[in-house]
Amino acid sequence: MTDKTPKTAISLTYPAPQTPKVVAKGYNHLAEHIIEQAEQAGILVHQDNELADYLSRLDVGSEIPREVYLIIAELIAWSYMLQGKEPDEWNNLHQKIDQKV
Hints:
Elements: E1 8-13, E2 21-27, H1 29-40, H2 49-55, H3 69-82
Antiparallel strand pairs: 1-2
Organism: Catenovulum adriaticum
Keywords: Bacterial flagellum protein export, Protein transport, Transport
InterPro entries: T3SS_substrate_exporter (IPR006135), T3SS_substrate_exporter_C (IPR029025)
């Protein structure tokens, strides 16, 4: 039995401190092209059919809804960890904590 579900790809950008936005989306061959281009550019690709289905309802250029902020934040954090990176704001975070209690 073959899966007849169309392949979906959604590309997001996160121009911090702004909200993540949908910058591309496609189905089937276009989805495969989006994924291929992302991989060639060294962008991590996450496969989640339910999330892709939800995000595919948004128009290109739309900000992601508040309901999925946590999911996207977790994916961004995961991608940073996999790449051995950390956000600039995390540098010396331990020195910014007010020790006066």
